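Input sequence (313 aa), recorded before submission:
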Amino acid sequence: MASSFAGLPLDLLLSPWALALVGLMVGSFLNVVAHRLPLVLERQWWGDVHGQFGDADSYRRVFGAALPKPLADAGAALETSMAALAPLSLARPASRCLSCGHRIRWYENIPLVSWIALRGRCSACKSAIGLRYPLVEGLSALAFAACAWRYGPHPVTLLWCAVAATLLAQALIDWDTTVLPDDLTLPLLWAGLGAAALGWLPGLGATQSIAGAAAGYGSLWAVYWLFKLATGKEGMGYGDFKLLGALGAWFGWQAILPVVLMASVLGAAVGLVMKATGSLREGRFVPFGPFLAGGGMVVMLAGLPTVLGWMGW
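Predicted structure, token format:
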């Protein structure tokens, strides 16, 4: 007898079509995450700055002198500015048009459908709504459907959908801000280690998962320091180490080199195109995180044996 939930068979609930619909809704939320999470984190960082400006004891321990009045005044001004900010989280306030502040009604926020019905424009001020919004929703739907096709109608498929959503969110945020938030990377890492320990990842036990996490983090950490010692410059951020470590926790140490190679080739290609078109950002670099996430998605959806076969390994 087929497994079921709430009277409905899992073959239906976890079919590619059903999970594609879930993916559309998750993609709508990922647009919010990509926009708001960096702002929430920046507020926290400014709060840390305020706390440091007001810590006279710490200043005395470090500098051996009293906290200068200009710093104390700056801390007080920053405290006032932060207190005046409206509350911000992933859930509050409700979504609004970035141009005119129009509150987006529920029927204007239906994934894909609303964007098409509104012809990509705000219903109030007619400002353009970026194509990125429906693209992210569509990518999320495709990723969820692909997970259903790859892993079948089993509860663990939902876990892989969560991995796909997290990787997509990280790629978007890193592309926008060059930051890979620990709020996403560390849960992904620990979830991979936990899933392996619980036997939810066929062919990957706890030992292999731990080895993958160590190999992922350690390999890029070594490259970072070799590059810095040789050039005096930083070639990547610590978030890249953590993301590759998280991918190693999910796929094992054998996946590390294929993921890095795919990310490097694709990143170099995109960088060359952006350089040729003059679209490189200040500092003339391309964030590595989106391409690591893309390499992880390829391994997740194609399977590590298939990817190794492509490379002749």
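Checked by second reader. The chain is about 65% helix and 0% strand.
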